[in-house]
Design a protein that fits this description.
Blueprint lengths: L1 E13 L2 E7 L4 E6 L5 H13 L23 E9 L2 E14 L8 E11 L2 E3 L1 H11 L2 H8 L3 H4 L2 H12 L4 H5 L3 H8 L6 H32 L6 H125 L18 H69 L15 H23 L6 H74 L5 E8 L5 E9 L2 E2 L5 H19 L1 E2 L2 E4 L14 E6 L6 E3 L1
Length: 654
């Protein structure tokens, strides 16, 4: 285990102490003195040396005495440590910064600066803090140097650190050897214990809500259910009504039979009439068909001429359009050809111009107005001749190209004119043909076919006489057998039907009552099923409660096995009996905050012993107000007691 021993601590001009050096015993040292003699200042100086804070974890506190304007010497704390047999010296200085502004005669205070030393080697703050952290991390130091720190911090952090030391208690370990617990964990596939607990609680709440709604629904059905009647008596009355209706129907049937015979004879005559009328329609249709055929035959030649006339006119119109388009294209092509001719004329003028260009070459110097040397004149002539020939070649090439393009345009114009002449010839032929067709149609008209009437056909008239005879026979049958009056019998039948329907309606309530009774039974069965489901859930909740209790006991046993005196209560219960997480240090069964000073101190030391074992390091433990505790438990760490006495100055006891 790593052991950090404070061998000496030196204060210089630090919080009212001019010079003070304390040598410490590696086991236990007591710093004694009255109030205000500097005991707490020594503890604060030690904390500032390591972490730049006081014992209350404050960075912003007065290091210099209050009201002091200028401190010539720096405030300094130096500590000598023995760490696993090796000496390490730490030093921190707090200096004033005085500067002389430009143009001023006096120095001006501009703030403070802190300097750091490790084994007398100066370094920056980051490196110094890194060296201290290599010795002991600040948070771990607080745990194992202050007996009251761990037990007074937030309970959630206490739980977190305790479980980081002992590790979580696994559900599988709790369930091992208990079949009911094992089956419970098997139900937790892809869900946590808390999620499953919430799930079954929600299911239980839903089942209870549904169960509470069963009784009102049954009561509502009972209110809607009709009053029970003597259904056997109603069925007997219905049977009597049906018998009386059967008698009335038989009476109506006997009166209807005579009328039915007459109606059959009348229907047979009407069927014969319908047959004759169908034949009349067939005669008319056939006569009209023959008449339309003769008319169509006569009109066929006329229609053929008419179609030929329309076709000829359409072709003539198309040829006129085509001829106009060809003339437009000829005009466009002729315009392009004329443009080419103009360009040829311009090229000829250019050719003549450049061909004559070198006959009058200027051989005078533009600067001195004298004739140029012969060599320069020959050079100018050669260049001018080359330019002239190049320009003439260019004009010749373009002239040949224009000639070819113009010849192509003239060839196209000739082709277009030939095509136009051919179309004009076709137009002339079509015009002659159209005039001939118009002459042939001038004296003709299309024939129409007038519909033929039945009275014009002998066969139709003969059938009409037969129909008149049959209509007369039907009239005689109706006059010979008039319909008998059945109104009284029909009225009686309606009365019997109304009474029968009323009985049926009353009997209908029997089925409704049976339906309601079945609904009540279904709801009662549903209520029993819900009650059973609630009971099953409550048994599951009891099992979960037993599991949680077993896990609580295992967690507390595992944590508390690390400590000799202090115990931790990790769970508590609500008034309803539900468990919830806590972390309460107990000293002899008494919560830490209300225990006496000696018990709190020894409980804190017990916690420090366990944490030192876990982190593998011991550091000096500062115990304030040590005079109030007679005995403390054995610890591996160095003890530094701060004891209040009546002395007016500090006394160091090793």
């Amino acid at each position: 285990m790593k052991r950090v021993i404070l061998q000496s601590l030196r204060l210089s001009h630090w919080r009212g102490i001019g010079e003070l050096e304390i040598n410490f015993n590696d086991k236990e040292t007591s710093i004694c003195g009255g109030n205000g003699t500097g005991k707490s200042t020594i503890y604060n100086a030690f904390m500032w040396l390591l972490f730049g804070k006081d014992s209350e974890d404050r960075k912003d506190f007065n290091i210099k005495p209050s009201g002091e304007v200028r401190q010539t010497f720096p405030a300094e704390v130096e500590g000598l440590f023995l760490i696993d047999g090796q000496s390490v010296k730490l030093k921190r200085q707090y200096k004033e910064k005085w500067v002389k502004p430009r143009g001023e005669t006096e120095q001006v205070f501009s703030g403070h600066t802190t300097e750091y030393f490790y084994n007398d080697v100066p370094m920056n703050m980051r490196d110094y803090e890194g060296r201290v952290s290599d010795i002991i991390q600040e948070e771990v130091f607080k745990f194992i140097s202050n007996p009251l720190f761990f037990a007074t911090m937030d309970w959630k952090k206490q739980r977190e650190y305790l479980f980081s030391i002992v590790g979580e208690v696994k559900d599988e370990d709790i369930a091992r050897g208990n079949e009911a617990f094992t089956q419970l964990l098997n139900k937790l596939t892809n869900k946590s214990f808390d999620d499953y607990h919430k799930e079954i609680k929600a299911s239980k709440r839903k089942s209870k809500d549904e169960l509470q709604g069963i009784a009102p629904r049954i009561e509502q059905i009972r209110k809607l259910m009709p009053e029970p009647l003597d259904f056997d008596c109603l069925r007997a009355n219905l049977e009597k009504q049906e018998e009386q209706l059967a008698k009335v129907d038989r009476l109506l049937l006997s009166k209807d039979e005579a009328n039915q015979e007459r109606d059959k004879e009348v229907e047979a005559l009407r069927q014969e009439i319908r047959g004759y009328k169908a034949k009349q329609e067939a005669y008319i249709d056939e006569a009209n068909k023959q008449a339309r055929g003769e008319t169509d035959k006569a009109n066929k030649a006329f229609r053929n001429l008419k179609d030929e006339q329309g076709k000829c006119q359409r072709l003539l119109n198309a040829k006129e359009v085509e001829a106009d388009e060809l003339l437009k294209e000829v005009k466009r092509m002729q315009g392009l050809s004329d443009h080419k001719t103009e360009e040829q004329n311009a090229l000829r003028a250019d050719w003549q111009k450049f061909n004559e260009a070198n006959k009058h070459l200027d051989t005078t110097c533009p600067t001195c107005s004298q004739t140029l040397p012969q060599e320069q004149i020959e050079s100018l002539k050669a260049k001018a001749e080359a330019n002239r020939r190049a320009k003439l070649d260019q004009i010749n090439k373009r002239g040949i190209q224009l000639k070819e393009e113009k010849e192509q345009l003239e060839a196209k114009i000739d082709d277009l004119k030939k095509a136009h002449d051919h179309i004009e010839q076709e137009r002339e032929e079509l015009s002659v043909k159209l005039q001939d067709l118009n002459k042939r149609l001038a004296g003709q008209t299309e024939l129409t076919c007038e519909p033929i009437k039945g009275e014009d056909l002998p066969e139709w008239c003969e059938l009409a006489e037969f129909i008149d005879k049959l209509e007369q026979d039907i009239a005689e049958l109706r006059e010979a057998k008039p319909t008998e009056d059945k109104s009284e019998i029909l009225s009686e039948k309606q009365r019997l039907i109304a009474e029968r329907d009323d009985i049926k309606e009353q009997l209908g309530s029997e089925k409704l009552i049976a339906k309601y009774q079945q609904s009540i039974k279904d709801l009662e069965d549903e209520g029993q099923a819900l009650s059973q489901a609630i009971a099953d859930i409550e048994r599951e909740e009891d099992l979960m409660s037993d599991f949680i209790k077993a896990k609580i006991e295992a967690c507390e046993q595992k944590v508390n096995s690390l400590f000799s005196g202090v115990k931790f209560q990790l769970f508590d219960r609500t008034n309803e009996g539900n468990e919830y997480e806590v972390c309460i240090p107990l000293v002899n069964g008494v919560p830490f905050p209300v225990a006496n000073s000696a018990d709190r101190l020894n409980a804190g030391l017990d916690i420090i012993n366990t944490l030192c074992q876990h982190y593998g390091i011991t550091t000096p433990i500062f115990i304030d107000n040590r005079e109030g505790v007679n005995e403390i438990i054995k610890v591996e760490s160095q003890i530094i007691n701060l004891i209040v006495t009546k002395d007016n100055k500090l006394t160091i006891k090793n």
